[in-house]
Each structure stands twice: as structure tokens, then as C-alpha cells.
Amino acid sequence: MSQLSLAIDSSLLVRDAQGRYLPASTDQILAAARQAIDHKMQRGASFTAPATVKDYLRTKLAGFEHEVFAVLFLDSQHRLIEYVEMFHGTIDSASVHPREVVKEALRCNAAAVIFSHNHPSGNPEPSQADRQITQRLKDALALVDVRTLDHIVVGGESTESFAERGLL
């Protein structure tokens, strides 16, 4: 990936192989935003405020043209251990495997998790399949004493929280 920098006129530019600055593509801008949020919210960052969680996940998942299922693995104080994009899918679905999520939670020694995935359509309304996989994941993680705090669906700039809607 090219080095990103901010020009004096506030346009996002990238430097090409010859050292010239060119306008950044949408993908490059989104990649830069994801890098910025990674630097801001590093291991140990607190995820106790729903607005913080939503902003973080919106920055990480908005703009993908395919579904991405990610998990925030948290310690007992709900501080970030690791953000992991676990499954990548198509424009309208992603296969999620509870066994793999449990394995990753144990590897991270997580006490709690927050699930998230994007809807490339831009509509964050949870589907019936979203509700079913969330329950399966919650049940599987409960067997190893890992709490499920929320599942955030990102649709463009909008988000929906399972916890806020009483779906957990």
C-alpha cells in the first residue's frame, strides 16, 4: 500500500512510485481510516461505551463490498485484547463457524466478545440468519465462560445493536 499523507489543501493524496502525489482512491481512504482507528484503539482500549464500539466498528467495516464477520475479544474489564476479522463472504452472506470463534476466544483468553458484521447493501437491519448465528455463537461461548456483550451490524454509516434492541 502507498504511503498516505495529508496535503496542505486538506485533500487526501498518495505518493506514487515516482514520488508524485495523486488523489487517493476510495479504497485507499478507507484503508487509511482503518489504520487510524487501529492506532487510536489499541490493545487495552476500553469498550464500555456503546457509541465508542459503534464508531470503531463502523470505521473498520463500512465500505467493504462483501460481508466481513469480525469479533472484538475483550478482557474482564471490557478492554480490547484483539480485533479479528474472522470470516469473509459474498455480497450478501458470510459463513460463520462457532467452533472457530470459540477457539479464537480461548487463544486470546477472552472474558467477553462483541460480534460485528457489515451489510454491503447499506441496510443494518439484522436478518433472521443474523439472529440465529448470534444465538449459536452465544450458546457455544457460554460453555467456556465467555460472555457475549453485543452484535453490531454495520450498514454504511448506520449501525444496529442486538443488545440495544433486546435481541441478546
Automatic annotation (TrEMBL):
<dbReference type="GO" id="GO:0008237">
    <property type="term" value="F:metallopeptidase activity"/>
</dbReference>
<protein>
    <submittedName>
        <fullName>DNA repair protein RadC</fullName>
    </submittedName>
</protein>
<dbReference type="InterPro" id="IPR020891">
    <property type="entry name" value="UPF0758_CS"/>
</dbReference>
<dbReference type="GO" id="GO:0046872">
    <property type="term" value="F:metal ion binding"/>
</dbReference>
<dbReference type="GO" id="GO:0006508">
    <property type="term" value="P:proteolysis"/>
</dbReference>
<keyword id="KW-0862">Zinc</keyword>
<keyword id="KW-0479">Metal-binding</keyword>
<dbReference type="InterPro" id="IPR001405">
    <property type="entry name" value="UPF0758"/>
</dbReference>
<keyword id="KW-0482">Metalloprotease</keyword>
<feature type="domain" description="MPN">
    <location>
        <begin position="46"/>
        <end position="168"/>
    </location>
</feature>
<dbReference type="Pfam" id="PF04002">
    <property type="entry name" value="RadC"/>
</dbReference>
<dbReference type="InterPro" id="IPR037518">
    <property type="entry name" value="MPN"/>
</dbReference>
<dbReference type="InterPro" id="IPR025657">
    <property type="entry name" value="RadC_JAB"/>
</dbReference>
<keyword id="KW-0378">Hydrolase</keyword>
<keyword id="KW-0645">Protease</keyword>
